[in-house]
Give the backbone structure.
Amino acid sequence: MISLSIPTPEAMERFGAQLATMLEAGDLIALNGELGAGKTTMTRGLGAALGVRGAVTSPTFVLARTHPRLDGGAPLVHVDAYRLSSPAELDDLDIDYPASIVVVEWAAGMLDGLTDSWLDVTIERPVGGTVGGARIGGAEIDDAGIDDVAEPRAVTITPHGSRWTGLLASGWPAG
Ligand SMILES: Nc1ncnc2c1ncn2[C@@H]1O[C@H](COP(=O)(O)OP(=O)(O)O)[C@@H](O)[C@H]1O
Ligand SMILES: [Mg+2]
C-alpha cells in the first residue's frame, strides 16, 4: 500500500498522467472515493497522457465510454459503476478487458471474480475540509459556477496481483 498527498486538481491530473505511463492493454484501475473526491479529474489526466480522443468527463449517464487513442494504442474504457448493483451488471457491459485499459469509478465490490490483477486507487477528502464541509461534490460546485478550491486529497494505492506488486515494489516513482 502506498499513500500520497495530492494538493491540487492539477496535481491530480499529473498523478493520472504518471500512472498512464505504466499502463498497457489488459490493465484495470479501480477508483474509489466519494462524489467530488477527484476520480474523474485523475482519469482526465490519465486519458490526456494516453492521447485519447474525446474529452474525459464524468460518464455517469453512459456507464462506460470508450476513448480510442490517437496513436492506435489500446483504448481507454472509462466506467462509472455508481448505478451498477452487482459484478454481473458490470459483466453485462461486455468490456474487452484484454484489449483495453479500463478505469472503473466506484469500483468497490464490483470486480469480484473478474480478475486477480488490478490497481486499487482510493481518493479521500480531508475530514472537515471546508469545501467538503457542506458535503457538496466538486461537480455540483462547478454547476453552480463557483470556483474550484484546491484541497489536498489523500490517495491510497493498493496493488493486487504480481504485475502491480512487482511494478510498485519500490513505491510510487518520484516525479
Ligand atoms: N487535490 C485535488 N484533487 C482532485 N480534485 C480536486 C482537488 N482539490 C479540489 N478538487 C476539485 O474537486 C473536484 C473533483 O471532482 P471529480 O474529479 O469529478 O470527482 P469524482 O469523479 O470523484 O466525483 C473537482 O472540481 C476538482 O477541481
Ligand atoms: Mg466522477
Remarks:
- Residues 9-20 form the longest helix (12 residues).
